[in-house]
UniProtKB/TrEMBL annotation:
MF terms (GO), sorted A to Z: transmembrane transporter activity
Subcellular location: Membrane
Similarity comment: family membership: Belongs to the major facilitator superfamily. Phosphate:H(+) symporter (TC 2.A.1.9) family.
Protein name: Polyol transporter 6
Keyword Transmembrane helix appears in the UniProt entry: yes
Annotated TM spans: 96-117, 124-142, 154-182, 194-215, 227-245
Xref: PANTHER family: PROTON MYO-INOSITOL COTRANSPORTER (PTHR48020), SUGAR TRANSPORTER (PTHR48020:SF49)
């Protein structure tokens, strides 16, 4: 029975053999001809492929009129430069992108989803977090009632179970899946690998922190109190997403930096 789980992995491995390289990665390596062929395969029309090719060239600082199949990309000290530009000297728009990309990973686990398991694009995020604030507060309330009654209030235990499922449901509506989509698509091409990597590092750090500290936390402030705390963190997350995470639906990777410019941030956040 355990071996059955290997079947989807094998199918995925076979599928990966047929998966084309990312056109953006190919252009970063100077392989314009290969990137153009793939764009023509995956785009709806040749015109769309040309537009996407031109946008990626422009983002990489390559002449949009260049028709060479292979061009030389200057990579000297590129890695050090990316670290400095992203962390030490970011532009205002890149700073907002970094805050959003790291913040979404931080709050995914800071809201206490691991603790819920142990005890038992923008619109989606806001719906998800709104539901989590209410259900986590409800879970804390019912657990507190159950603890103070010594387990005599069966209805409080039943509602604790119901709200636990509700928390997980709201988490999976938005915060769980959207975190990975949003945080990987907002970084400009040059900073995408590093920025997404930092976000994942924060994600794993918060995962470990909440998982390992929950029992100590519940002993210190009770289990119900712990979920009241997580409800408060969820409220902070809701405020964070509302003001710092604009809508990215329908935007190309090359447009992301302009979406996060200070002048447009408030407009995008209200969509």
């Amino acid at each position: 029975m355990l071996g059955i789980a290997a079947i989807p992995s094998l199918l995925l491995a076979v599928g990966l053999l047929k998966m084309p390289e990312s056109p953006r990665w190919l252009i970063m390596k100077g392989r314009l001809g290969d990137a153009k062929k793939i764009l023509y395969k995956v785009s709806n029309t040749p015109e769309e492929a040309e537009i996407r090719l031109r946008d990626i060239k422009e983002a990489m600082g390559i002449d949009v009129n260049c028709d060479d199949d292979v061009v030389k990309i200057h990579e000297s000290k590129e890695s050090d430069g990316v670290w400095k530009e992203l962390l030490l000297r970011p532009t205002p728009s890149l700073r907002w992108i970094l805050i959003a990309g790291v913040g979404i990973h931080f709050f995914e686990h800071a809201t206490g989803i691991e603790a819920v398991i142990l005890v038992g694009r923008r619109k989606l995020l806001l719906i998800s977090l709104s539901g989590m604030v209410v259900t986590l507060a409800g879970l804390g309330f019912f657990l507190t009632l159950a603890e103070h009654s010594g387990g005599k209030r069966i209805w409080a235990l039943v509602l604790s179970i119901v709200t636990t499922y509700a928390v997980v449901m709201f988490f999976n509506i938005g915060l769980g899946p959207v975190t990975w989509v949003y945080s990987t698509e907002i970084f400009p091409l040059k900073y995408r690998a590093l920025g997404a990597g930092i976000g994942v590092a924060v994600n794993r750090l918060m995962n470990a922190t909440v998982s390992m500290s929950f029992l100590s936390l519940s002993n210190a402030i009770t289990t119900g109190g712990s979920f009241f705390l997580f409800a408060g963190v969820s409220l902070l997350a809701l405020i964070f997403f509302y003001f710092f995470c604009p809508e990215t639906k329908g935007k190309s990777l090359e447009e992301m930096e302009s979406v996060f410019t200070r002048g447009k941030l408030s407009d995008n956040s209200n969509k």
